Amino acid sequence: MKRFLFTMMVSIFGLTLTTVLPAYAITNGQLDGDQHPNVGALIVESETGVKEHICTGTLISPTVFLTASHCTDFLPPDEVVYVSFDTQVDPVTSSTTLHSGRAVTNPNYNQRQSDPGDIAVVQLDKPVKGIQPAKLPKAGLFDELASKGGLNSQKFTAVGYGVHEAEQQPGGPVHPYDGARWTSVSEFNALNKSWLRLSQNASTGDGGTCYGDSGGPNFLGTGSQETDIIAGITVTGDAQCRSTNVIYRLDTPQARDFLDEFVTLP
């Protein structure tokens, strides 16, 4: 299930939104504040003129914002989208700092689980000033780490805007949404060709992502060991946002072939 904000959340979680599509958000985490200023919200304008957050992403150059293709593939060609690095984006108001641009969906985006190509960028109209872009991993980083046993205890820092872990209410479970930027820590679970699977099981102290965090970064390391390298972007997980955060690797040939068109790769 994709971690994306609109209709899916309305139908599954009973949230009232005026927009029409899906995203995931942070669970078992904490407010981010200014810890990750290069992480922003992807915002689109509805037919009624209301601007709302749908996904998350990261600035990877002054003019390139990284996100997921399932956050952009429904957009009409050349539609203007917006990015905000404010710590709070609900509601989007006249005081919200917006950066306009156009989304570029990966032409190889598909529904195959083996490699969905679920990666996209927003090319911003003007360079973003005063924010240091995040870094991308070198080619084959996680295969290299796995071969040396370096992934077994590795932790990752997820960042995003969106809903949180379910709270039980008289009418059933509700996923709270505050539109703020949050962060959490996930632990390595499994590696395959295109994915890193991370544990977000709260009973073992892990956090993760949920609806509203799609496209958002999972940085390599946590705490004093956290780096500014994006290991992968949040794409999917279990429907209840309880057990698994599945992220699309950025060190693979397929991801790098797409990104090479927009930024200089390490």
Overview of the structural elements:
This protein is mainly beta and 266 residues long. Helix content is 8%, strand content 35%. It contains 3 helices and 15 strands. The protein has a 6-stranded antiparallel barrel. A 6-stranded antiparallel barrel has the order 2-3-4-7-6-5. It starts with 6 loop residues before the first helix and ends in a 7-residue tail after the last helix. Mean pLDDT is 88; it is low at 6-24.
Strand order of the largest sheet: 8-11-12-15-14-13
Biggest sheet character: 6 strands, antiparallel, barrel
The helix fraction, in percent, is: under 10%
The radius of gyration is 17 Å
Overall structural class, as computed from helix and strand content, comes to mainly beta
Q: What overall geometry do the principal axes of the alpha carbons give?
A: globular
Low-confidence stretches: 6-24
Number of helices: 3
Overall average residue pLDDT: 88
Q: How many beta-strand segments?
A: 15
